[in-house]
Amino acid sequence: MIQGSIVALVTPMTDDGAVDFAALKRLVEFHIEQGTDALVAVGTTGESATLDEDEHCRVIQASVEYVAGRIPVIAGTGANCTREAIALTRRAKAAGADACLLVTPYYNKPTQQGLYLHYKAVAEAVDIPQILYNVPGRTGCDLLPETVGRLAQVENIVGVKEATGKLERVRQIRDLTGAEFAIYTGDDATSLEFCLLGGNGSITVTGNVAPRLVHDMLTAAMRGDRAAAEAIDAKLQGLHAKLFIQSNPIPVKWAVAEMGLIGTGIRLPLTWLTEDCYDPVRAAMRQAGAL
Of the listed 93, 120, 161, 253, which one is catalytic? Predict the structure, then answer.
């Protein structure tokens, strides 16, 4: 089971919006040096919605190549079209990804049965470990614990990223799935409590900026050391808040650029962080020791 700090990696881009593979390689090395436990390539934080299929798969393949087996690479392969999700998942497996992360179909607003059949179809089509991803604030649909419990019985479905911030779902999902099913948070602000309650880690945005602190905090929380986890998380509270001062990944890409790791490329309809937000994000970075 993949556990700990799983960074939802930003996709570096040049000023004209092209994927910057040299910067991607720097990011991979940075995270391995800083103790990141696994990386998500081209998740929603990686601007998956605005990369075409070939770009999407090239970033996954490059991430696998750059990591070279040192930590797991999870490929973002979700889509609101089941056939597209299957195609992306097949290509991620061919590229050598260790697992896939599939966001719930967005905009369509499927029923719980539709969600069940969607994920079941992908899992039956591609033999690779698959992680469900529930983020109703972005997708317009909520993958309920009962549906997660049904899906946990499907071969290849090994975990869920639960990004509602509802801490009660840790126990609800665990009771419906069992100890071998991975439960990750996608909400940085509540990740400490989530892991103290038995979660297996965080698929984190904050980890892009303060990877060592996030790794150490989650490690402490997963071993039940509240005092140590809280002491570290106190330094991260500003980032948990200010990295969402505008739509993700706008603030986090600005912060990683401010660290000198990537350039200033971002794809429309997203735009660069507005100047009035620079100082609040910088203050949060300083609090975490990232500047």
Answer: 161
